[in-house]
Design brief:
This protein is α/β, with parallel strands linked by helices. Helix content is 47%, strand content 14%.
């Protein structure tokens, strides 16, 4: 019963989220969307660029699939945790804001960001021993025929148009799913560009194929990062 309740909770969103979505669509217009592989399955992993603040919102509004997304765990924590993450990591480290503007923005956004994250169906992502919690919640999500979108790019020094690299932790989800269910969940590369207003969804990859080629987690992450960059270079930039 507990597992069923946890799965069902994934699909729940704040009561006002329907109104918020309509409001967001006024400010965030629908991009031109191309899926190179046609219709998307209900159960899939999407690896995508973050595109600063735009990606998570645009994907939630317009990616033609139902999904939850991995997000930094402090954003679902206490007000103090949200504030420090927004000020020190998001605005200063990643967005290169000065301390005054970062503090002002963080004070404001920390008040409501947790509700926004819940509306986006964010699953807390950890980079320590609690990562197993992220995997467990993600497995319940996939079991409920809801996809997972992950932003694994290295954005420690900011967000880049051409992604530098992918952190490899997300590959454990595909590996874990394979181990538990005996089959693969497809992994789709996705790229969104706010300037060109285009979203490109690539062809799926499968953990079994990577495993058969003897690739380790870092090599798998590098290949998927290349695929996401190729979507930009070949289908958006030209």
């Amino acid at each position: 019963m507990a597992k069923k309740q946890e799965k069902n909770a994934i699909k729940k969103q704040p009561p006002m989220w329907g109104f918020v979505r309509k409001l967001l669509k006024v400010f965030f217009k629908k991009p031109h969307i191309v899926s190179l592989s046609g219709d998307l399955p209900d159960k899939a992993i999407f690896v995508a660029n973050h595109a600063a603040m735009f990606g998570p919102v645009i994907y939630n509004l317009y990616l033609p699939a139902t999904f939850a997304q991995w997000g930094a765990w402090p954003m679902l924590g206490s007000w103090k945790q949200r504030y420090h993450y927004l000020r020190d990591v998001y605005f200063i480290q990643k967005r290169h804001k000065n301390k005054f503007s970062a503090t002002f923005l963080a004070l404001f956004e920390a008040c409501f960001s947790v509700y926004f994250y819940r509306g986006l169906r964010v699953l807390p992502s950890y980079n320590d021993q609690r990562f197993i919690t992220t995997l467990r919640k993600s497995m319940h999500t996939l079991a409920d025929d809801v996809g997972i979108i992950i932003f694994p790019e290295d954005s420690d020094d900011g967000y880049h148009e051409h992604l530098k690299s992918f952190f490899a932790g997300f590959t454990e989800l595909a590996k874990y799913y394979r181990r538990c269910h005996g089959d693969d969940v497809p992994i789709y590369p996705v790229y969104y560009h706010p300037k060109y207003k285009k979203m490109i969804i690539g062809f799926p990859s499968y953990y079994t194929d990577y495993e058969a080629r003897g690739m380790n987690r870092k090599e798998i992450a590098a290949d998927l990062c290349r695929q996401v960059n190729d979507l930009f270079e070949q289908h958006i930039k030209q």
